[in-house]
Amino acid sequence: MIYLVNKIVLCVLVVAATVSCRIHKLHLSDDERRYVDLTTFGFFKGGILDVKLVDFMMPSGPVYGEYGFTLDRTINKAISPYLAQSNSATCYLKESDTSILLNVTCKAKILHLYENRSSIPDTISTEEKCSYTMLPITKETRNGFDYYNTSFALYVATEMEEGLYNLYFNNCPNADSGTATAVNMIVEIYESNAGNFLSAGEMPLPALYSMMSLIFLTCAALWTFILRTSRQPVYRIHIIMCVLVYLKALSLAFHGINYHFIQTKGEHVTAWAILFYITHLLKGAVLFVTIVLVGTGWNFIKHILSDRDKKLFMIVIPLQVLANVAEIILAESEEGAAEHNAWRDIFVLVELLCCWAIMFPVV
């Protein structure tokens, strides 16, 4: 069932009552989460969301429960109704249907829905109505399990339909048992804005990162010139800070190139992504080392680090490396993967610990 909730909330429901913009491919194995945050993407006019559900596996025979997708349009992710629903027993998927079909029901201004993106016509009607009312689900039985496959495509035809869309998978538990069933499936997601694979808010990033890289590179070159021509003594901390600016310029340059390939191909090129992650990790480590050195007064007040300062480095540097690793895993993992939220929490916690650690010598 597809319907709108709280002004503009589009829901796609697949009900079985009796039974790396971007291009994503998410594997869910024995996943018991009631809500899975699959993807978040900002669409402009001409944007396309294509979703394929592949090999949704259930044991053969009667299965009681409701499973489906919900597409929620909001101003920003912070006001998504799922923040309130995630800890409650409420389920968006209320209607029941004994047929194996993807039913579409409109309750407000609805977007244009099709079986897949190849079936989107060249001329799109802008009338406020459902453009597709019933989408088929195929079923096949293998080794005692039923496998379901379906797909749907969403086309943003008008400026009124533009916005930030959040796609969720819903696993509503059996009303009798009250527990969610573990699901196994593959979800393939294709998102684009008229051939641009970046979300609406990310489109300026390739040019922005490239411009900022040039600015940092110019500042680093100017800094190098000043250090080399200075008649005053040059402290080693100044050289370390100059290296930090060069690393920042390289990190931004590789980040911009990485986003350019995501923009044009829908996925990054591994070589450029690795170069970005290496320079980003080095930049983060050098940044925190510089802050700690300045806080301890090294090279200004004292030229030798005390045992206390050395112990502080033994804490800060591994924490910063762990924070960068967590950030890289966050960037590389699918938003709907079970480990994604865990690494996000680890990243926030480690960043807070790093900030506390570098404040210690100052206090």
Automatic annotation (TrEMBL):
Pfam family, one: GOST_TM
Main location: membrane
Compartment(s): Membrane
Signal peptide stretch: 1-16
Alphabetical keyword list: Membrane, Signal, Transmembrane, Transmembrane helix
Residue span, GOST seven transmembrane domain: 204-362
Topology term for the membrane: Multi-pass membrane protein
Transmembrane portions of the chain: 207-227, 239-262, 274-300
A Gene Ontology term for the protein's cellular component: Golgi apparatus
Protein name: GOST seven transmembrane domain-containing protein
Species this protein is from: Spodoptera exigua (Beet armyworm)
